[in-house]
Structures are given as structure tokens and as C-alpha cells.
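Researcher: Re-running this chain for the archive, since the previous output was lost when a drive failed. Same request as before.
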Amino acid sequence: MKPTRIRVTFLTVIAILFALAGAPPSSAQAPLEPAQLPSRTLFYLIWRGAPVPEVRKANSLLALWDDPDFAPVRTALATGMLKSAQEKSPNTTLTPEEIQEYASFLENSFTLGYLSEPTKRAAANAAATKEATKPAWNGMFFVYDRTGKEALLAKAILRMRALDKDAPTISQITLGSGTVMKSEGKSGTTYWADHGKYVVSASERSVMEEILVRIDGKAPAAASLAQTPAYQEAQPIAGSGVLEFFVGIPDLKNLAADSKTGGVQAGPLLEAARLDAIHAISGHLTLEGPRTHFQAAIFGDASPGTPFDIWSSGQPAPASLALVPADAVSYSSGQINFMGVYDMVKRVAHAAFPQSQQGNVDLIDTMAQTRLGMPLPDAVGVLSGELATMQISPSMDTEKQVFFIGIRKKPEALKLLRNLFGDQLTSERNEGDATLVKISLGGKQGSAGVAQWNFFNLAVTPDMILGASRTEALREVLANRAKGAAFASLATVPQFKAGRAQFPENVNSVGYFDLQKMDWQAWKERLLAEAKKSSAAKSVADAKTAPPAAVPDWYAQINPQVFARHLHYTSSASWKDAKGIHWDQWLQ
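Model: Regenerated C-alpha cells:
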């Protein structure tokens, strides 16, 4: 039986992000676990099968997906996928009914991965093709547990064959003790086989052969991915979860040794950026009763002078948290090491130019200084690194949203604003120790008069720049700030404190969303009103070239209370340590 081609499996993988479809019990074992994968595996994505009904009912996120009132959203997602597929290849479009049927493939587990090119093969090709194009390598493979899906898989294969304009050439080859089918067409070569309860596919013969050996358990354990240093670094996350992924970063120096980008050798640039300090990226999704837990990390050498300088070392609480009221619906804050970003960009810029042209790097700094009114490092030093936002509107009204930018020096911050926005800065006045600034995002003052619109308001305090579309939102925050210790901030809310307690003491980002404070009906009405307004504006703009834009059906059809029934709150954080940068989020 011929399995679905690898290009089709990508659509299946993407579909997982929209739905953990299916309800029948399934095994938690993947066709190939990390300990079975070859050591030269650069990437894998493992789906361990749809959870059993009891787990689905208990989990808030899956219960939301299964709720009949959520059907309009499920249909809209499927329709969106169909529309995208039709635009790319009209002849291969699936109907909504077929999408629903094929979604049941996700009830079973699979492993999708990529093997790097063998060293011996790469060296042989390099020697044999000095003047010719090096043969392309495609190390992708796919292993699917087809138990109970044999008939549906056969139906999908027949449909694909009927849609193929140019039928591929099919032949049989022998690999080990089994027979493998080889499909050759314009899009390339694919090897596939029915191997016990699995369907196996690969784009390289050597990859196919190795994967079959791994499934049979005949490869030595010492040669597995689990024994590599990069995977062992990722061990705290890798190897578990209903869904997980792993990306091993190859030796970038070897990959870029002879490559050039725009006439510039890539090797020195990668070395200057210290990308070799990044060893692996990994993440997984687990279901723990009503809660859904997502974890991810970039593992490597997080010492100074590496890309990990982008993130700060963290702190117990961001400065903006003290200004967020206890009744806030959502809040998020992140800390960026802007000076670390500047230093890395400067190193790469120096590496991009030969010694005789190093003055070009200084020229960039000079141009920035002319615009900002101060040396670029000084301008970067004005910022503390914090970027935050809060929302106090239960309907998520954007006019109630407030943004925060941490600063160290108010006079220098005001100077930067004046130099950056120039004539777009329409007013500036002091109220206490805060300076209120209005900026036009849609026009400039000129000698003939004022033509400005789309105003945005800022309040510059000694340690923070507040931003909002309406001045009233800023005044509320400033009033809270004036209360000092008497102000009850979000940090005092038990639910926020419980979420924060799950993470390390020092974090460089924190997020919180109280979904029970949402006015879902008001949210829906606002969403509909904004969608109609946007559609009307687009219809006027495109009246001569396109039909009027329509408001998505699910906006009107969805029962907004379906969200209130299942979702309560989400809490997240990130932090940096000697092993890398880590992200953690809980949803229930």
C-alpha cells in the first residue's frame, strides 16, 4: 500500500496546531522515540496520538475544542486551510467533509524527522563535483502508525493518484530483507514501504534503509540521538509530551566554510555572532488534568558574548507590575538586553567588512547619532530593557490598552522622542513629575498648516514611558502610581501569585491573562463591529478591483460563552540560566 507523500504529511502536522483531533484510545508510544533515532537526526516532531476520551473531557483546552458551540471556529479553520491549499494547487483541494474525515489520521501517532547528510557522502560529492552542482540532499522521513486507518489511507492514496497529472514511475527495490517501493516523478524521488503496522516514507535511499533498521530495533543504542551531547542538554524537556519537537544545531562553521552571502563570506559572520553557542532547540506539550502545559528552550552556552546576550539575566518582578491594577484582565512584560543586541550587531558588522573598510561600521554609528542627537550606545543605555502591556477592558477594547517602556533617564528619553518624531510631536506638557506627549502617527506640521491624524499619547515618568491611544487611560495609570504603597496592584492577586510561584525567582518575562474576567459577549460585539468597519473600508478601497469584503461567518455564529465554560486563566514566564533560555506556560 502506498502511503501519503511527505508533502501531504506537512499539512497534517500543521493541522495539529489547530486541533488534537480524535477520541479513541491510543498508545502513548511513538513509532520512533528519540532513543531509536540516528545520532545525525537534526530535527524531529513526534505526535504520540490523540488522548483518550477521559483525558479530553478533563482538559480545559480539549473540552473547548470538542464543545458543539465551538463548531463554527473548527469549520472556519478547516475552510481557511482549504482556501490556502486551493490558491496553491486548485486540483488538490479537499472538501470540508474530506478534511473532517482525514483529520482522524491524527488519532494515531507519527514521527517526522530529518537526517543530516552522511559525512562520507558529503566529502565524496564535494570531490566529484568541484565544477558541477552538488547533488541535493533531502533527509526527510516520516513514520506513521496506520493501525485502524488502513481503509482511509487507501482512499487517500487513490484520490492522490487520480489527481496526479504526471503519474510517477513506480519500481521495487530490496532494502535489507524487505521490499521498498520507489516513486520517481518531477517533484523528486520518494521511497515508501508498509513495515508491520507502520507506513514509512523517505526521500533518500540511505535514510529509508536506516529508518527501517531503527524500527526493527537492530541499530546499536550507542549510535542513537539520545546519546548525543545536544540531545542530552535538552533532556529536561525532550522525550515526553503528547507533542514534542527537537532541533539540533549543526556545526555552523563547517556548513558556512565555503559559502558566501552577497559576496561576503558567511563563516566570519557566524563566528562573530557566536551562533556556535546555540546547541539545540526543544519543546513539548503535556496535558495535566484540566491544565495544558507548554515548555520550550534554546539550549547552549549562555556565557557573555553569545546570542543569549539578547535576553537579560532577569529579576523577581518587572517595574511595570507595580502600576497594573488588581482588576486587570491581562498583563505581559519582557526584558530585552538592548546593549547585548547592539554589541552583537556591531561584532557582525565589523566581520562583514574587510580591514580597509572598517570605517563603514563607524559611519552607521555617526548617522544614528545625527538622527538621535546622541551616540547610539548612549541612546540604547537610556532604555532599561522592559517592554510591557496591560489590558483592563473586559471586551479587550484597544483604547483601554496601555504600553510600558522602561527607561533610566527621563531627560535623555524626552530628547530621543523629540529627535525621533520631530514635527509629529504635536504637544508636550508637564503634570507633576510626568510629561504628557502627543504624537501624530498620520501626518506632519508644515508651513501651510497642520495636517495630522491618528494620535498616540505618551506619559514620560522618571523610570517609564507609558503609551495609549487615549489620554484617559494614561491618567488612570498615573493616578495608581501616585497612590504608592496604598495601591493594590496585580501582584497582590492570589491567582497571579500562584501562577508566578510556579517559575524561578528571577525571570525576564512574565505573562498573565484572567480569562474569567472577559466579557465574552461584549468582546464578540466589538469584534463584529470592527470587522464590519474594516470590511466596509476595504470594500471602498477595492470597489474597482474586487467584490466587497465579507465578515467571517464564525464571528456571528459563535456562542461566546463557550470560552467562559472552559477557559479560566493562563500564566507564563521565561528565564535565562547557564544552560540557555527557557519558556514555560500553563493554560487552564
